[in-house]
């Protein structure tokens, strides 16, 4: 094995290890842009597996919550009723 071969192999190894460290550092910076999470209009808030086929998913879209039942013959979209306003009460002091 000549010196040129040894230097070439060492240089290639340094390049690959450098790329691995660069990607490890840069991947978290790119993740919000790739996933679309920044300013997303559609968010899956919760999901529940009902059985092996069907799933109930709570979806938030533009501030409105919807229930989606999926996995059967047809998917069903159910709007949630608005949450009741909290009732105000007064406390009488004696």
TrEMBL record:
**Predominant place of localization:** membrane
Which keywords annotate this record?
Cell membrane, Cell projection, Cilium, Flagellum, Membrane, Transmembrane, Transmembrane helix
Regions crossing the membrane: 6-25
State its location(s). Answer: Cell membrane
| A Pfam family assignment | FliO
Q: What is this protein called?
A: Flagellar biosynthetic protein FliO
